[in-house]
Amino acid sequence: MAAEMTPVRALREEDLPAVVKMIHALAAFHGDTARTDAALLARDALGEAPWCRMLVAERAGRPVGYANFVPFLWIAHGMRAYDMQHLYVEEAQRGTGVGRALVAAGSAMARAAGCARIIVGTAEDNAAAQDFYLSLGFEERPHRGRRFMLNLG
């Protein structure tokens, strides 16, 4: 498919079923099982106090990809960032500019929010994603120590 213009906009309620399906597909790709549903996604991305900012890319009037951004703060440096926790494009749309459009829109959103950076991680063996981010000007950062998690319930 040839590259074409890709409208990118904020998530809307009518996008929830399609985006939930994509979230489940991304989790499966990584060997995980997504537990989110439309109600949880609405709470976290559309509620009174959204926990994240989600962008949706459209083709032919339907969602074909999404990017999810969560605020991040380097408090010692007074530097805001967005952590792009998910970037997903339907397989048939990959290589057509959808991912680039989502990152460009996310970059504009981050700048408008006063962010100095966007950070993103990839699976160690996901060379395609790593090459994609490098092609957009992202710089690989070394791992600094270990991270831990405390389950709260």
Structural notes for this entry:
- The protein is of the alpha+beta class and 153 residues long.
- The chain is globular, with a radius of gyration of 16 Å.
- The mean pLDDT is 94.
- It starts with 7 loop residues before the first strand and ends in an 18-residue tail after the last helix.
- Strand 3 (62-74) and strand 4 (79-89) form a beta hairpin.
- The chain is built from 4 helices and 5 strands.
- It has one domain (8-135): Aminopeptidase.
- The chain has a 5-stranded mixed β-sheet.
- The protein has helices at 16-29, 38-46, 98-112, 127-135; strands at residues 8-10, 53-59, 62-74, 79-89, 117-119.
Keywords for this entry:
153 residues; alpha+beta; Aminopeptidase; 5-stranded mixed β-sheet; 4 helices; 5 strands; 31% helix
Topology:
Layout: E1 8-10, H1 16-29, H2 38-46, E2 53-59, E3 62-74, E4 79-89, H3 98-112, E5 117-119, H4 127-135
Parallel strand pairs: 4-5
Antiparallel strand pairs: 1-2, 2-3, 3-4
